[in-house]
Amino acid sequence: MPARISRLSVVAGFAALAAILLPFADLTVAGHDPWAALSRMARGFLSPDFGGIEQILWAVALTVGFAIAGVALGGVTGLLMSPFYGMRPVRWTAIALRSVHELFWALLLLQVLGIGAWTGVLAIALPYAGIFAKVMSEILDEADRRPSDWLGPKVDPLSRFLWARVPLARAEMASYALYRLECGLRSSAVLGFVGLPTLGFQLDTFFRQGHYGAAGAVMIIYIALIGTVRWWMRPRLLIFWIAAAMVLLTRIDAPPMGQGAFWRFLTSDIVPAPLRQGVPAGLWPWLWDMLTGAILPGLAATMIVAQIALVLTGIVAFAGQALVIPRVAGRIGAWIGNLILVVLRSFPEYMLAFLFLQIWGPSMLPAILALALHNGAIIAHLLGRQAQGLTLRADAPRGLTLWGWEIAPRLFGSFVALCLYRWEIIIRESAIMGILGIATLGFYLDDAIAELRMDRAVVILIATALVTVLIDRTSRSLRARLGAGRLTVGEAPSRTAANC
Amino acid sequence: MLKLDGQDIGHGGAPVLSDVRLSVRPGERVALLGRSGSGKSTLLGALHRAMGDRRVALVPQDTALVPQLSALRNVLMGRLDDHGAIRNLATLIRPRRADRDAALAVLARVGLTPEADRAVEGLSGGQQQRVGLARAIFRGGEIILGDEPMSAVDPIQAEVLAQEIRAAFPTAILALHDVGLAHAFATRVIGLRHGRILIDAPIADLDAATVEELYAR
Q1: Which of A29, A45, A237, A312 allows an S-S link to A372, with CB 3.0 to 4.6 Å?
Q2: Could you list the residue range(s) of the whole structural domain that residue A155 is in?
Q3: How far is it, in rounded angstroms, from Cα B191 to Cα B39?
Q4: 3-class SS at B57?
């Protein structure tokens, strides 16, 4: 790759790639009457049925419980890893942990630990520990070094860390942890789709029963929950919330797993079948079969979904940023724009895809739309915030002229950088969509797990993790070549743009 | 006790100071004078390095305090290398009575008793500078190296603080911004101009003409 590339050529490159992939995408509408499904769903949403409120509130409590316990455990683990992030084993462990999505961790853990509290907590805690380790180490690196330098070389490392490093980074770490908790709430809700007793499970159940009013109620409560985190999650209440979460999670009834399930998983289940059967020569044909039968087709579908979704994300974001700026859309227009973006941002891609799947049936279409709307809304929101901070001349135009001549060109760099940031996430999420029945990597993983072929599942997981790492690298090197390696929104580095 | 002989000093290639020869004997109080950019901070850095392993109380120009911690804890930081990790951790959580009293005594000397338990980020620039000075006094040692340690306090207070420094350290090298203060505090003056030592003499020899030359554009 050349040392510097222009933003326009990056955009053109991605658009061309998406256009080439478009004919290979399965965009058929499989549902027999999408409009009827859509109107039923809309009616349910508009006239929510709070009849099953007890059931729903229990699911809310468990959603919050899993989120708090998972984020707390992941946060503490990540914090402990962060000072050692420079060491290769620690860094690689963190990369491995975070390159596997929460849902994939959950699928794997369900086999080992059963459908108990630990599965939900660890499914969140493991990938989050990897993310926390990286971000906390970045925050520590960026904090003022001078107090630590003043201490001189004789002070022991622990005292130096606690006296002169942690206090400087604490406020930012706390605000990042709060943001991560919002991510955790989304993750926790989505874990319901693979069977854990959270809001996703309720949503799934109500849809299966055709109980659209109740599903509407779940969605409204979910949005309220996400929207109010910053009010009920106070640093002072942290200990209380963690204790409450722990008490709550011990009350989950789970069928006990057989003794030694974990040991059997490690020593037998994940050992490739040819090795287990004592035919090491069969390993290569087995791997080749995996590669051609699952990994490559899964990867191809994942990339098709992701690349088309990325371009669509860009379109949504580019148009959406105009919606939230009062000088462009008008006061009322901006208010409505913000509302739409908040709703789209609150629903994780997976949940949106699940909803769209009810309307259009299983194809790549629901997945692509869900990815584009959710990620587009996030980028549009961040760009909108940045646009508010721009200083405009007093006689600057209004409306579309302002957007076209001032805002869009000035924010174009951030726009491209943000899209590249979300690229990796879109690919991870595309892989996940497979669990919904779209033939991306998650589909093959889910399939292998359903057949209890854990050896195959682990190979697919490793392949997925490698792809994630590869895309992360590519995205970072592209951003560096664009001169957008470190993204900032306003004053603060926008770590929050990157992750969930 | 401290000697630089004929070195070029600078960061990364280009020397800021050239051919610096000086030695400081115990008991001397040196005032470094010169316009900003004349190399005072660089010279202090070189002197600090020349001290090697010996105990130095340092007052950097940017204070290098931890803004989120209280004034008292910032002062206690001055002696972290005298204790092990466990003792320091205990002090961070809750300082022992004796440590607290010792730090409070130093804070009283710089006039910050009421601010002892306030976070440094809430203090004014002058108060922060006094916390930095208190940390150095609490640390103690044979020598104090200070980079304009009184630049943000008023002249009367600066004189008082200078007295405290005299009382606490046998030897001192301070970059100062105020010629009057230098006269009151120092026994010897080193004047820097464009990275060279223009004058190195007893403070009594510092006359108006030399000062004029030091600060001329």
Answers
A1: A312
A2: 45-269
A3: 10
A4: strand
Q: Which amino acid is at A57?
A: L
Question: Residue A146 is nearest to which of B64, B84, B89, comparing CB atoms?
Answer: B64
- Report DSSP letters for A227-260, one per residue: HTHHHH--GGGHHHHHHHHHHHHTT---PPPPTT
Torsion of CA A388, A391, A396, A400, to 10 degrees: -30
Q: Cβ separation of A147 and B66 shorter than 8 Å?
A: yes
**Domain assignment present for A279:** no
User: What pLDDT sits at residue B104?
Assistant: 97
Query: A224 and A160: one domain?
Result: yes
Q: How far apart are CA B198 and CA B181, in angstroms?
A: 19
Tell whether A102 and A205 lie within a shared domain.
Answer: yes
Q: Contact B71/B111 with Cβ under 8 angstroms?
A: no
Of A206, A240, A269, which residue sits at a domain end?
A269
- Interface predicted TM-score of the whole assembly (ipTM), two decimals: 0.88
- Superfamily covering domain B1-55+141-217: P-loop containing nucleotide triphosphate hydrolases (3.40.50.300)
Rounded to a whole number of angstroms, the distance from the CA of B69 to the nearest CA of chain A is 7
Q: Which residues of A touch B (CB under 8 A)?
A: 146-147, 149-152, 154-160, 162-164, 167-168, 170-171
Domain count, chain A: 2
Chain B residues contacting A via beta carbons under 8 Å: 58, 60, 62, 64-69, 73, 77, 80-81, 83-85, 88-89, 92
Residues A264 and A309 in one domain: no
Same-domain pairing of A261 and A294: no
Does A282 reside within a domain? Answer: no
Q: How many CB atoms lie within 10 A of CB B52?
A: 8
Q: A66 and A149: one domain?
A: yes
In a shared domain, residues A62 and A21: no
Q: What does the alpha-carbon distance between residue A253 and residue A262 come to, in Å, rounded to a whole number?
A: 20
Calculate the average pLDDT of chain A.
88
H/E element holding B201? strand B196-202
pLDDT tens-place string over residues B176-211: 988 999 999 999 999 998 888 889 999 988 888 888
pLDDT digits (tens, 9 = 90+) for A404-445: 888 888 888 889 888 988 888 899 899 999 999 899 999 999
Instruction: Give the pLDDT of residue A204.
Output: 92
CA distance B70 to A384: 39
Token readout for A441 is: 């990597």
